[in-house]
Amino acid sequence: MTSPLLKKMFARLVVIGAGLAFVIAxxxxxxxxxxxxxxxTGTGGTNGCTALNLPSPTCTFSGSAIGTHIGSGTYxxxxxxxxxxxxxxxxxxxxxxFASGFAQTVTAANTDTIAFNTLGLLCNEGSLGSPVQYNxxxxxxxxxxxxxxxxxxxxxTATLDLSVPLSFIKIDGTINF
Length: 177
Description:
177 residues; alpha+beta; 8-stranded antiparallel barrel
């Protein structure tokens, strides 16, 4: 014989258990996606940005940065340039090239790193040797420390005045770690 009190208690436990399942499930089913932005200034390597006759020319942007989830840190982006420019340039004298970089890094204040791949266009503002602009996208591929399982992506823009050399960078997007 089952008492009516025991039946009511069992029914309440089932309702509470079902409610907890709905509360817990969404928290584990969807990852936390955060806004991420890094802004920096530094130097740049001039060898590959101007010497496009090398077998694999490169252009480097690196320096100090500040950003969300990293505090004060550093950045280093080196893109390999496809040495064949777009036909007919890009208007008033500028020349653009496809460029990509793998295993680029942003280093946080505590030395944890975020690694990412990037691809985009590297354009001279005028003739070869003039200031360059890189406009691309990136995909986060992991990192170290608290960023070891990081994923995300977004846009990356950088400029480099080859005569100084002085570079600026802005990374915008999302990150999950």
